[in-house]
Amino acid sequence: MAAAPYLVALALIEQEGRRALPLAGRSLKAEEAAAEQPTQVAHVLALELLLRLWQRSDDGALKRASGVESLLLVELPMECLPEDLPRLKADWLNSGDIRAFQKGLQAICGRAWTMSIAKFEPISLTAWSA
Known about the structure:
Layout: E1 6-11, E2 13-15, E3 18-20, E4 23-27, H1 30-34, H2 39-56, E5 62-64, E6 71-76, H3 84-95, H4 98-108, E7 112-116, E8 124-127
Antiparallel strand pairs: 1-4, 1-6, 2-3, 2-5, 6-7, 7-8
Helix pairs in contact: 3-4
């Protein structure tokens, strides 16, 4: 993984019969990239993404498109951002093929986690592999 990878939180959702894939991201500092889990940055990105989703709910009901694997946090090399991630996103929006999206994402990311929360608990990151 590159010395300064990019951390991306993404949500695979359906709204009013259409797929959407909102995301939020930021580059990681070297010490954050070296940590077992980028917990602090993950919490910030999760909050930003979920606030976007909440605002989006004004336009209709939201549904997770892939169950517990609908809210992901992935670490990507910077060089994947301009072409690979947008291509994966467009392919999923057009086809809806979750498995192809997951396999493609796994092929370009270094580390990945699902994000979840339980009542009275902080955000939980669980290692993810397609």
